[in-house]
Amino acid sequence: MFKNLINAFKTKEVRVKLLLTLLLLLVYRIGCALPIPGLTPNALVSVTDSNSFLGLLNSISGGSLSNGAFLALGVSPYISASIIIQLLSIAIPSWQRLSKEGEEGRKKIAKYTRYAALILSIAQAVGIVLGFSEIIDTRALWTGAPTWLISTFVAITLVAGGMFTVWLGERISDIGVGNGLSLLIFVGILSSAGTSLLNSIVGVKSNLNHLWNIIIFIVAVIIIFALIVFVDGAERRVPVQYAKQIKGRKMYGGQSTNIPIRVNASGVMPIIFASALLTFPQLIMSIFWPNSSAMQWYNTYMGAGSWPYIALTALLILFFSYFYAQITFSPDDISKQIQQNGGFIPGIRPGKPTSDYLRKISNRVILFGAIFLAFIALVPNLIFKGISGGDAGLINGFSATGLMIIVSVALEFDKQLEAQMLMRNYRGFLK
After folding, report:
1. Helices (H), 265-351
2. pTM over 0.90
3. How many angstroms separate the CA atoms of 225 and 217, rounded?
4. Contact between 244 and 251 (Cβ < 8 Å)
């Protein structure tokens, strides 16, 4: 990866794209540090520390949510909108056809996603303002200003910040290198994790015994990171042989290839889905009924780290892993394409036996990937909690979900950077 970066900076076209990407990322980080007039500084620290899902969103936004910054919402509305649109694309036939219409279809789906992100941004902003009324600072704008006016101003500013984040991500994708929104998440997690680790290291001065915990914590993070990198690139390759065909004086086919089935094809999405479903009731009750008996019961028996929470998280990850696999991998379609092109899997008959064989292999691979995701989502967090002494910022910053996002985005950025270099060299060769 570093070699590709060095080579990229030697090439003018790619260097300009990289510098533009860095500039837009800098603008994003500045927006994450600008406080909103009307919000109490560090207003949502206690809320993000106590709620695992809000803690994840806070780490994704680089700590801007807990600080009440201009870009506090970050990319979370767009992520939620993308998930909703993907699910609706399966249920609505017209949207399903759009996803198969190429560039024009993708543009329409992207437009629908932006509209959905706007609606979710408004809902989140209103929920934050109404649910956490103590964060409103009535002295921020001018003395004697009514609370409703300041609350409206804060909500509008939060919505504007959320949509500005989406715009920044799309601009990075258009004129820079890599997926813009993924890079924003990447930078946010790195910033949050780095800040939490630095604060922990500074706190070692007052307690030297905490130093060994920090060292063990860093070693555990490195091991988990290496494990995620290894599994992320793992795949099961099914060999395919194409028969020789003679048309006129030319011979076609006869080559061998393979069908790659990724172990972790769904990426980090099953973990995000599971966390969102389990923490959504807690989030709603903390906004509207913070002191109710239902809230106390949920925190006691369904809070993060409890055995029911761990069991339900594992089951939901398994479910969403298979759900995503059904969307991205269709054994029937692949079997039909292989048969139409005169191919076959050695030892397997074309048609239904091929689709059944591919389905059996994919189910086994998906099961391993789902078990790995459940392990990564639960076990490291429990280990980190014990090692870090319960430091919420450190746990959220170095969560397994965050580490998986960092790995996947870094690998994808390296691939796109390499593709940019190959394209540039190819054009130079043609000239």
Report:
1. 269-288, 293-301, 307-328, 331-340
2. no
3. 12
4. yes
